[in-house]
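Example 3.2
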Amino acid sequence: MTSADFRVESSHPIATRLLPMSGSHQYFFSDRALAVAMAAKSVTKPSGQEIRVVHVPTGEVVFRKPASPRAEWSEDL
């Protein structure tokens, strides 16, 4: 495995307090567990958008943090 086998990505900027530089659309990791943990602990700006972990060599999505349903679309108000 190379140093960038897993990519945490989103179509919106990713915000996290766990990385020194926040606001990128993608981050690269060599460890799958670390990439999944970072994706799970991260949010997007605007909040509620999908974050994925992709295995770079194959393009397979190995983890997906789904977009949060918007409150105005919910019937549970």
